[in-house]
Amino acid sequence: MTLEPPTLEPLTRPARLRPGARVAVVSPSGPVPADRMEAGLDILRGWGLEVVEAPHARAVHPRLDYLAGTDEARAADLQAAWCDPSVDAVICARGGYGAHRMADLVDWAAMRAAGPKVFVGYSDVTVLHEAFARHLGIVTLHGPMAGTETFLKDPDTQESLRTTLFVPESVRTLGLPAARALVPGRARGIVYGGCVSLLAADLGTPSARTSARGGLLAIEDTGEDPYSLDRILTQLLRAGALNGIAGVVCGSWSGCGPYERVRAVLADRLGPLGVPVVEELGFGHGPTSLTVPLGVSAVLDAPADGGPATLTVEEPALR
Questions:
Q1: How far is the C-alpha of 214 from the C-alpha of 295, rounded, in Å?
Q2: Which of 91, 198, 213, 245 could in theory staple to 120 by disulfide, Cβ–Cβ 3.0 to 4.6 A?
Q3: Of 27, 29, 56, 220, which is the active-site residue?
Q4: 123 part of the active site
């Protein structure tokens, strides 16, 4: 007898932040320009947070300058910040590349024992979102990072993260005005995902999902040509990684070529799944990046009449 794979269930929600909360900033992937780091930390302090930098948050690998220090140092920073009982949240400074290299150096059992807290990041940090879901079973936030240009320059991006951290019940419904149905319909499921090229690269690793049944897949990317996006989505389809998903919500595709060509790939690869698909919800590498909770139950509404599409979480992202 063939057993059906398990359906995704909501994950444990961490506590919301309050003024005076202590936040650790880590760099699990690429190095951060000093001016951007300083500006991002100032924004967080302006929200009434006590901000501490991990020891290697501004480091650069001695030989591989696309990494923020050695794999061991980056893993140690993440683990130490998470296991510090005085730290209420861990926010990544930037993406780039490197999370895959350090993910298996983290003591996930020790981090699980430390209990839930807020974790924020996107792009390369998708690897860690998947690992946190699998190893720790907690809700994480696909949101802007402290040293990124979008966070520093876009007030809507800043406000989306701030309200999610402090007043999560006020941001239950997500979607920019441009969000529309690529495939109309309505679906309920557990939100998961991130940068789609990282989801494909995660296949076969210790943090890879064994099933996404009942999931609402949130995807975006940057710098991938349409043919490359086709290859990435085809890999996920051939691997069975999208079997049983309830719907798909797409964010931004910055630097991926003319959107008409990207849209054609999304329609071709995702349309045959027979589930609702929303385009341009407004998260990821675009000029405005909404904070999207991962691991929560939500309803995806993609109206057939061309009206605005939305993603509505059924409970606030944080307690």
A1: 12
A2: 91
A3: 220
A4: yes
Q: Is 4 a catalytic residue?
A: no
Calpha distance 230→47 (Å, rounded): 41
Q: Are 122 and 100 in contact (CB under 8 A)?
A: no
| Alpha carbon distance 215, 242 (integer Å) | 9
**For residues 222 and 196, is the Cβ–Cβ distance under 8 A?**
no
- Candidates 259, 284, 90, 271; CA nearest to 193 is 284
If one counts every other C-beta atom within 10 angstroms of the C-beta of residue 184, the result is 16
> What are the structure tokens assigned to 154, written together?
């876009």
Active-site annotation holds for 149:
no
Cβ–Cβ under 8 Å, residues 140 and 120? yes
Among residues 135, 285, 289, 297, which one is catalytic?
Answer: 285
Structure tokens at 114: 């430390």
Active-site residue, selected from the candidate residues 27, 29, 53, 123: 123
Give the pTM: 0.96
Distances (CA, A) of 254 to 226, 286, 288: 12, 6, 11
